[in-house]
Sequence to fold (149 residues):
Amino acid sequence: MNAKDFNLQDQDGKHHKLADYKGKWLLIYFYPKDNTSGCTNEACSFRDGLNEFKKRGIEVVGISKDSVMSHKKFADKYKLNFTILSDVEHKTIEAYGAWGAKKFMGREFQGTIRNSYLINKEGEVVKEYKSVNPLTHFNQIISDFDNLI
Fold:
């Protein structure tokens, strides 16, 4: 499957699109909300493991429906060293199949599902991760990547 194009602003207001990553490995991870425990754990594990991603030539991009301003505060608070993109209208989130029915405290609603996509240098999704565990996801990606190469 080919990766879906996007054109979204990062935590600094700079636009990013899929073509910017052509010729590079890319991990796009979707997460529900800045400053929540699972999302913070996942972001910090990617922050702490960024050198492992870089050694393998993998760029990391997080996407949620939070605003650019929310992302800026989140990135600054946790010293995030990778790009997080704002998709307030959740069009990219939907295009990747990371938007759907969720349940929380007995209530059903539509929201971002914690999915990730590993994209090769040609722009093809080579690994899809559905409803990931934010505490173990980093190690899972590294292991899968090493087995792919």
Observations:
- The chain has one domain: 7-148.
- The mean pLDDT is 96.
- The helical segments are 37-48, 50-55, 68-77, 91-95, 137-148.
- Strands lie at 7-10, 15-17, 25-30, 58-64, 83-86, 99-104, 107-112, 116-119, 125-129.
